[in-house]
Amino acid sequence: MSRSGGSAPQRDTPVLTERGGVRRAAILEAALRVIGDKGLAGLSMRAIATEAGLPLGALGYYFKTKDDLILEAFELHTRREADRVLAAFAGVGSGDHADDVAEHLTAFIRHGLTEARTSLVAEYEFLIEATRRPDLARVSRAWRQALQIQVGHVASRLGSDDPGTDAEILLSVVAGLEIDHLSTPLDPSTTQAIRAALRRTVTRLGLRGDAERL
Amino acid sequence: MSRSGGSAPQRDTPVLTERGGVRRAAILEAALRVIGDKGLAGLSMRAIATEAGLPLGALGYYFKTKDDLILEAFELHTRREADRVLAAFAGVGSGDHADDVAEHLTAFIRHGLTEARTSLVAEYEFLIEATRRPDLARVSRAWRQALQIQVGHVASRLGSDDPGTDAEILLSVVAGLEIDHLSTPLDPSTTQAIRAALRRTVTRLGLRGDAERL
DNA sequence: CTGAAACTGGAACGAACGTACAACTCACTT
DNA sequence: AAGTGAGTTGTACGTTCGTTCCAGTTTCAG
Asked: A71-204: what fold?
């Protein structure tokens, strides 16, 4: 009734065509890349547009505000990352020894600190920003809760007598190792230190698939 | 020879009077506060000036650029925090049980998530930014190394047979717990979960002062 | 074919940004 | 009394920012 020209599809059903959906997705991907290597402080609508190879005006069409865009980018990231974590732990079988479990975790962190570094940096950018933005905090909480449940199941499968606490410990150790080694180039000795910490943690927690069940 | 007016004391000895030093320090404190509750993305010279109750021009006098100011603020923070960590662990005696050690760590995290929340958020802002800025990365690395050495000494005092690895684990767990609970208000059940994770970690690592020495 | 709706993209807006600057005050030496 | 230089501050510069706008094109159901 009111809107005349080609305004943005703000509320209700956006009704995107296929081409529209592709562009929208490209914008979110570009945003994640920019956040990963320039940070949220360096994130501008123009930088996103350039990264995506789109005119500035396109961003206003698909996203009402920059904050909306950031929220959706975070949601996209958590969806993707949840799948990745699930896949990583799917490889942890009940026949594994503690060292095998530690090796899986080491590989996971190694990947995050090298090939997926941009994505990992973006993740922590989001987590910090969630401190100030309730909408991001909701996403962050939901994600963290889902992670803990999943890891809890794995811990249980590995014979933990307190899966919830073990999940909390494992997630914290992994997050801490990531953070602490983000500003350092990942040399072999660092990888060894990470491996040692994970081995010791997993071993001392008694997480191995061949443990007798209760 | 060249400078005429009251330009900034950029290179060589700045020659600050007492009043000048006070103002400089006030600016750094204000910057830390702003970073803590608006983030580096929300940090502007004007915001710092307002927070410090000073005119905008004062900032240009004491700091050549915004990046210089950020670097100095980070250095100030690490100096302060190193002292705080040292003080926290000074309370861990060799007669303590594992639960006492865990309680010290719980109190440390609790303080960071409540009273010192602003400072903690600022800390992680710096750590993420250090990913992109070599000067911040140097400070971050030096700080992290000093922490690990200190915590290693404590672990050794508590009977660890691998103090380096135990220090890495402890620092990571603490960092991870902080990060994971930053976007959540700290309710009693959360505190309990943190305590449980720390108890289990410390106990399983066998960190207690009454252990026999080698 | 025709109209409506999705989509495009360049231009332009006011606001906020980092930084530079110059005139000023004040404490202190000579 | 004159001078020197640290300290002070309001102002203004050029740039970049998020957002809006609108004339235009494409797509597709009726």
From this structure: Tetracycline Repressor; domain 2 (1.10.357)
